[in-house]
Amino acid sequence: MADTRPLLPSDPDALPTAYTPLPGGSSSPEIRRIHVKEVLAMFAGVVMVSLLVVIIGNTGQDGNVYHRNNRRDKPMLLAASPNKETATKAEKAEKLQAVTRGMAAGVSEKSSRLYSSGVGAGTPVYPWNNSMLSWQRTAFHFQPEKNWMNDPNGPLFYKGWYHFFYQYNPKGAVWGNIVWGHAVSRDLIHWLHLPLAMVADQWYDINGVWTGSATILPNDQIVMLYTGSTNESVQVQCLAYPADHKDPLLTKWVKYSGNPVLVPPPGIGVKDFRDPTTAWYTTEGKWRITIGSKVNKTGISLVYDTKDFIKYEQLDGVLHAVPGTGMWECIDFYPVSKTSDKGLDTSQNGADVKHVMKTSLDDDRNDYYALGSYNEKTGKWVPDDQKIDVGIGIRYDYGKFYASKTFYDQNKQRRVLWGWIGESDSENADVKKGWASLQGIPRTVLFDQNTGSNLLQWPVEEIEKLRLNKKNFDKVQVKAGSVVPLDVGTATQVCNLYAILKLLSQFGGSYFLA
């Protein structure tokens, strides 16, 4: 059973204070006469302290300023003393090392290199300890109980449960040893962690069970396509399915005995072929998927048709390509309604439908999308506006948000977006706290009928159950360049700000959600 408390307990009352308050709050204590005995006692105390300083200086850990007997609370990077010899030893033992993770294996950079160059190089980092780090654990965002997590995989709603799979390292808080973690929920907020769904135990995925997507067939059967990294680090596509479709928790998965079902086609690098999408159904009775790749510096999405998810036919050309964008990974392709506020099943198409093409750019680690038109017969997608094409225009999020994936929630007729938030903590901090990364609060995605050129995103409605109090600020005018204070309570409370901003007439009177 996973350790549900990977961090040391934090007792605020046990933390040392930086000051000693005066008794009774008096600012001018009574002056009294100091006796000879007290002077002698003070002198003896000074001598004892001096001896201790000398002893610690000779036997301490390489002259570091911070010294603790309890290794668990030892700061991760300690400030070295002025002594040159001990400073050199301390630097070797404690200085942050810039370690690259993932790129050599054929995926995007997975480690935070915040201190690899520039200001951070050789600069002591704040001396965190477990008591300080424990508060960083989030309350509502999805996280495994411990260790490393990255891309969301194969989210779906099945037999009353929301399923969430994710890239997971069961052995530590850094990227590596990637398998599929698995959790279920009734409301997308409160999660039950289940045993690992798939582990790296076959030649075709021994170097990693990487990102994939789920497709629910009309007979309520589920197929899961995922990328495996082989024993020779070749990226291949593999098929898996539940061992028992009657099990609503989908706790056991079976890998197809004939895996891999797809290998890199001619002209595609062995490490440039990954992350199959959810399949959509065509009028020819075939299922269609797209997979991310590149040719030189042109990002592309390859297209395949299949009838059984075992044998595939590659379509001529690509679904879409954008020069200069580099490797496309974690592609997502789905329809949105131009007239309705409901989400659409991935297979829907028609005159009132726009298609979203989204990719995660390996080069800059951001998620870009564009709206456009999809032609099923040619297997091509064309953006509405080439100036804001995929990879050069709009992003889902302008913070840390990557490797995102949507799914159609048939339970509430909505499209839900997941995204991985790779924190900016140093790798040392991640190892110290015992976990790394989280998922963004799931969001609903809709076509913006006002602008016609972008999507609207909003946290799923279930998040509202977490709200306890509400304050309304009606008819508040915000002038250009002004600061308007709002009394939303104390800083210890978690607040959501829901604002509807009405633009002036010169902007068409449109409404935007912020």
What's this model, at a glance?
With 514 residues, the chain is mostly beta strands. The protein contains 4 helices and 26 strands.
Structure description:
The protein has helices at residues 36-59, 84-94, 130-133, 427-433; strands at 147-158, 161-169, 179-185, 191-198, 209-216, 222-229, 235-242, 253-255, 280-281, 287-295, 298-306, 312-314, 320-322, 328-337, 353-361, 366-375, 380-383, 394-395, 402-409, 414-421, 435-436, 438-439, 443-447, 455-459, 500-502, 511-513. The protein has 4 helices and 26 strands. The model is unreliable at 1-34, 57-96, 114-121 and 503-514 (pLDDT under 50). Helix content is 9%, strand content 31%. It has a 5-stranded mixed sheet with strand order 4-3-2-1-21. Strands 9, 10, 11, 12 and 13 form a 5-stranded antiparallel sheet that branches. Strands 14, 15, 16, 17 and 18 form a 5-stranded antiparallel sheet that branches. The chain is mainly beta and 514 residues long. The radius of gyration is 28 Å and the shape is globular.
Write the layout of secondary structure elements.
Blueprint: H1 36-59, H2 84-94, H3 130-133, E1 147-158, E2 161-169, E3 179-185, E4 191-198, E5 209-216, E6 222-229, E7 235-242, E8 253-255, E9 280-281, E10 287-295, E11 298-306, E12 312-314, E13 320-322, E14 328-337, E15 353-361, E16 366-375, E17 380-383, E18 394-395, E19 402-409, E20 414-421, H4 427-433, E21 435-436, E22 438-439, E23 443-447, E24 455-459, E25 500-502, E26 511-513
Largest sheet descriptor:
5 strands, mixed
- As a whole number of angstroms, the C-alpha radius of gyration is 28 Å
The average pLDDT value, as a whole number, equals 80
Q: What's the end-to-end separation, in Å?
A: 41 Å
User: What's the order of the H and E elements?
Assistant: HHHEEEEEEEEEEEEEEEEEEEEHEEEEEE
Task: Report strand %.
Answer: 25-35%
Give the neighbour order of strands across the main sheet: 4-3-2-1-21
Count all strands and give the number: 26
Question: Which structural class do the helices and strands define?
Answer: mainly beta
Residues in helices, as a percent range: under 10%
Spans where pLDDT lies below 50 across 5 or more residues:
1-34, 57-96, 114-121, 503-514
Per the principal axes of the C-alpha atoms, what is the gross shape?
Answer: globular
Number of helices: 4
